[in-house]
Amino acid sequence: MKESTTQKVALITGVTGQDGAYLAEFLLKKGYLVHGLKRRSSLFNTDRIDHLYQDPHLDNRNFVLHYGDLTDSTNLIRVIQETQPDEIYNLAAQSHVKVSFDTPEYTANADGIGTLRILEAVRLLGLIEKTRIYQASTSELYGLVQAVPQSETTPFYPRSPYAVAKMYGYWITVNYREAYKMYACNGILFNHESPVRGETFVTRKITRAVAKIALGLQSKLFLGNLSAQRDWGHAKDYVEAMWLILQQNTPEDFVIATGVTTTVRDFVRLSFAELGVTVEFSGKDEQEKGVVIDRDDERLKELGIDPEGIKLGQTVVKVDSRYYRPTEVDLLIGDPTKAQTQLNWIPKYDLQMLVSEMVQSDLHLMRKEQYLKGGGFETLNYFE
Ligand code: NDP
Ligand code: GDR
């Protein structure tokens, strides 16, 4: 392991997730020794960080993975003791809002108490002076709309077991900062996406489906609440903000957002538009559907897509109430003024750039699937 007196050491929980992967890459570029906590799974779960992997037999590694789980305090204490981090980024979480209604107790344990376990480990190990802690807080804390745009002073009203668990994580971080003078901060991050966003979050679900529909691998996309409004940014910009939050003279909490909100419906429109396909919506609630009303054949051909595969009048989006949530968060729009002025945080991506990158990336991925299918390489069934 490459460690010198000047090299900073970071520990990232949730390193296999979307943000963990971007943050690991970002910190490695800054010269950090990066430790990542990864949980054991029955299949490889390191796709997003495989490009950063270093052979464990090398002795000058600067990226090291450790098995661990936020529900196991003994292992967290051991990993923190062994790695002696200058900075801990607590990104691990059961992060799916809808799934939290199905697994509320687990979500509370991992997302709420898990945060406490990290803070307590640092305190018990006597690392208060040395270790700075970033807690992955969320715009879901705002929940039922109290005021817009939402800032550091807007009251919380969580609307899911996920948000309630994260509310505990938020306040326990504030409490440890105040009680023990720890450098512990919340980043209240609004939705941020990327080509490696989990496939069941709405943006990625849309961009994957748009790519598949264009290539004739899928006929339509089923979605839930099309009217939900989110403030979507790019994960690459947001991990930089996490790092900036830990580089200040005093520990504080920050909202990280773009300040622009968009409906799920418009995200669908923008995604199809990236390929030259115009989709319009009609109908209400569960009867609403999205239909192709125009097609730019030149654009499609330029992208290597057969225009005849997409028919005018084709229904490409339908609503399925199974994706509705028992309690929904209707409108999120963040006010990033504090981050802009105090952290000098300036995002490089806007929504159009984000959508374009995600759709093009999924088109590339789905094309691979199409070639494999065309070549007769169907998925093997080992259980026949
Ligand atoms: P992901 O779901 O992509 O990643 C979550 C990570 O946590 C994965 O590495 C996952 O492991 C790991 N994990 C889950 N449960 C445990 C556990 N019990 N112990 C250890 N590791 C665990 O989330 P994102 O990268 O999108 O988000 C990062 C963090 O930021 C999360 O805490 C999320 O709640 C929060 N957040 C995210 C926002 C967003 O828009 N992306 C906005 C605001 C906050 P595995 O790969 O094995 O599943
Ligand atoms: P969110 O993200 O709940 O905001 O949490 P998600 O992409 O899951 O939902 C955004 C909005 O889209 C609506 N929606 C659908 N959502 C999903 N997943 N699938 C669908 O088919 C669908 N149809 C409509 C949802 O109802 C919702 O209103 C994300 C996570 O990353 C959290 O961890 C993070 O804290 C917040 O963002 C900020």
UniProtKB/TrEMBL annotation:
Keywords associated with the record: Lyase, NADP
Cofactor(s) listed: NADP(+)
GO BP field: 'de novo' GDP-L-fucose biosynthetic process
Broadest EC class assigned to this enzyme: lyase
Protein name: GDP-mannose 4,6-dehydratase
PANTHER family assigned: GDP-MANNOSE 4,6 DEHYDRATASE (PTHR43715:SF1), GDP-MANNOSE 4,6-DEHYDRATASE (PTHR43715)
Enzyme Commission code: 4.2.1.47
Highest taxon of the lineage: Bacteria
Function per UniProt: Catalyzes the conversion of GDP-D-mannose to GDP-4-dehydro-6-deoxy-D-mannose.
Provenance organism: Sphingobacterium yanglingense
